[in-house]
Amino acid sequence: MSYKEDVLDCGDAGPVRVRVYKGDADFDNPPLVMHLHGGFFLGGSLDEGSRVATQLANAGAVVVSIEYANVGVAPFPASLEFVFKVLDALKGRCAKLAARKSFLFVAGEEAGGNLAAGVALMARDQGMTALGGQILLSPMLDPCLATRSFRNSEATESQCPWTAGWNHYLGFAAKGCHPYATPAHCMRLAGVAPALVITAEDDPTRDESLNYARRLREAGVLVRESILAGPTGWPKDYSDSTNKKRDWEEKIRGDFAAFFHETGALSY
């Protein structure tokens, strides 16, 4: 899989460093996906997001993976507002980056999944009807970290990157009440873009991911969910930038492709 390094002028967001991925499949109107790498709100990089971005492109999308780390380390809401500005700029660039009739998606893993879910809520509230779907992989949705999947994980409070990340992102407890910051606590989910939620049996965020998928479905949102059999090594394996092939990559590529077809972004 090849990619192109670029710097996009994203209006109010300024110049943004990106990687643009395109697969071998030739579709007339490939989906355009803004991809947000992980990093637990403490960092991350385009290199660390390359494994997921590559599989999105292999599933038929044109993927714009954005470098948001310098802003991503800022507390809420700075990083979310930045990401939304980039998404809004990409909305006007569909024809240039993909095709005039391409659907626009947002995707992200762990901290990037939080931002993707938050941006989907913002898009609904600000009337951005161009957003065709949200793809959430092991998303960080609930700062309480009190689910059974977390209790069963090996993470402890003293060395848990989720705890450190949430503390940095929220800054103080009051921000945890904002639905854009903690989508798991959002009380109004109707009308958001269709969602693909992917987790794994050994994923610490499994329970909050599945609970969010359930609540979206109950609110009338089109939802596809996928639970990978363990062991996967998630979320650590997301950021592995080596060339070593992972067993789960083919599975998520199939999940991406099925979601693109189900939302009408790709035709058979």
TrEMBL record:
Family matches, as InterPro entries: AB_hydrolase_3, AB_hydrolase_fold, GDXG_lipolytic_enzyme
The enzyme's E.C. designation: 3.1.1.1
Alphabetical list of Gene3D superfamilies matching this protein: alpha/beta hydrolase
Molecular function GO labels: carboxylesterase activity
A Pfam family assignment: Abhydrolase_3
Record flagged with keyword Hydrolase: yes
Enzyme category, top tier: hydrolase
Top-rank taxon, per record: Bacteria
Keywords noted in UniProt: Hydrolase
Segments forming domain Alpha/beta hydrolase fold-3: 33-224
Name of protein: Carboxylesterase NlhH
Organism: Hartmannibacter diazotrophicus
Lineage of the organism: Bacteria, Pseudomonadati, Pseudomonadota, Alphaproteobacteria, Hyphomicrobiales
